[in-house]
Every structure is written in structure tokens, then in C-alpha cells.
Design goal:
Layout lengths: L45 H25 L3 E5 L7 H12 L17 E7 L3 E7 L10 H18 L13 E7 L8 H18 L15 E2 L6
Parallel strand pairs: 1-2, 1-5
Antiparallel strand pairs: 2-3, 3-4
Helix pairs in contact: 1-2, 3-4
């Protein structure tokens, strides 16, 4: 008996392409290392404070972006808005460190994962704030970093003015305000540029910042004029 052959055409079911979804980058990664700053305990002009916080938030976004592009973990910058006032400078740093809200139309902050030293200076006052997140503090203590800088620009008289904040380990936050004192040889305006150079020199000594390769530190220093 001849073998029966089924000549019904076989229709293969279409195979749906499997779309591989890559995990999105976790925008919250590293937020656990942010160390909140000290509470404001003095009265400050509300209008000026609002401006400082707004500018600080914007600067935080810019610093985060610049650091990402350069693969940097530490950053130094001069802030003009506080005009030498230490309390205002602290508020500026807090605004930079604020966790960005992705739902907001205009991002603010976002630089709390980066170690930073920021400065403000007038003829009469020189102030600086050092901040280092938890995961970087063992390599670079904020207090040690700031003391090294101040020793180079104001010697032991200036280092004696470096302070920490109640309830916050000094390896995370440290600050200083040096007022003009001609008799003691303390001239704020002369400290401005050398302070930034010494801040970067300390980081390079610890292997936390690229060697300069004959480039100027200004390549990595951003002031108010650098951000529109």
C-alpha cells in the first residue's frame, strides 16, 4: 500500500522578537553617602537666602555634569554670591548637595555625591566650606583637607579658626571664616587664588585628582561667570 504523504503546507507561527530591556541607570545610587549639612541658626535676609539657595542648586547640577564628564570625584569652586559670609556659603553647599527631584522641570542640586571645597571672598572676609560624602571620607577628611589649605594661606593663625559643626563628624563637614587683620598678617583677598591651588594640590598628593600635566588648575575651577 503506497505511503500517504500529507501535503498540507506547514505554516510556522511567527516568532516575536524579544526586546531586551537594559536596566536604567539608578539615579539614586550614591545618595546614601550624602551627609546633611548643619541647620541654619542665625537670621539671614530671606530674599538673599532664597537667591543663594537657587544659585547653589543650579551650581550643583553644573558641577555634577562637569564632574561626570571629567570622571572627577572632587571639585573646587569660588562662589561670589555669599560675599564672604560663612553662613551663606554653608547654605550654598547644602543647596548643591540637595537630592535632585526628577519630576521637577528644572533640576537642582545633585552634587552631594562629590567631595567639594567652595570659597567666597571679599576684601574683608575669606570663607571656605569643605564637604566630603561618607564613601570618600576615609581617603579625604574634610577637616584635614581644609586645615591643609588654610595652613598654606593663613598659617596656624588661620587654622585655629577652622571649625566643625555640632552633631556632624568633621571628616564630612568643616568650615572657616578669616577676617581682615593687618596686624596678624591676614589679608583675605590674598588667600583667594592660592587657596584653590592648595586644595587641588592636597587631592593630587592623595591620588584623588588627576595630575596637572602642565595644565592650569583653572581648567577645573568654575566661578559664577562660568555658568550662565
Amino acid at each position: 500500500m503506497p505511503e500517504l504523504v500529507d501535503k498540507t503546507p506547514v505554516v510556522e507561527a511567527p516568532v516575536e522578537a524579544v526586546k531586551q530591556e537594559l536596566p536604567a541607570e539608578d539615579a539614586t545610587a550614591g545618595n546614601e553617602n550624602i551627609v546633611p549639612g548643619p541647620e541654619l541658626t542665625v537670621e539671614i535676609n530671606e530674599k538673599k537666602l532664597k537667591k543663594i539657595v537657587k544659585e547653589g542648586g543650579k551650581r550643583g547640577v553644573e558641577i555634577e555634569g562637569a564632574a561626570d564628564m571629567g570622571g572627577l570625584q572632587f571639585f573646587c569652586t569660588m562662589i561670589e554670591g555669599p560675599e564672604g559670609d560663612l553662613d551663606m556659603l554653608v547654605e550654598s553647599m547644602k543647596a548643591m548637595n540637595a537630592i535632585s527631584d526628577p519630576s521637577e522641570e528644572e533640576r537642582k542640586g545633585g552634587a552631594g555625591k562629590l567631595g567639594k571645597m567652595i570659597f567666597t571672598c571679599t576684601d574683608d572676609k575669606f570663607s571656605a566650606v569643605a564637604y566630603v560624602p561618607k564613601d570618600k571620607a576615609e581617603d579625604c577628611s574634610a577637616h584635614e583637607w581644609l586645615c591643609e589649605v588654610i595652613m598654606n594661606v593663613a598659617e596656624s593663625k588661620g587654622v585655629a579658626k577652622v571649625k566643625s559643626f555640632e552633631g556632624i563628624d568633621s571628616k564630612y563637614w568643616a568650615a572657616v571664616c578669616i577676617e581682615l587683620d593687618g596686624e596678624a598678617g591676614l589679608f583675605p583677598i590674598k588667600m583667594r587664588d592660592p587657596a584653590i591651588s592648595h586644595a587641588y594640590a592636597f587631592l593630587r598628593k592623595k591620588g584623588l585628582f588627576p595630575e596637572d600635566d602642565d595644565e592650569d588648575d583653572d581648567e577645573y575651577v568654575f566661578g559664577d561667570d562660568d555658568f550662565p
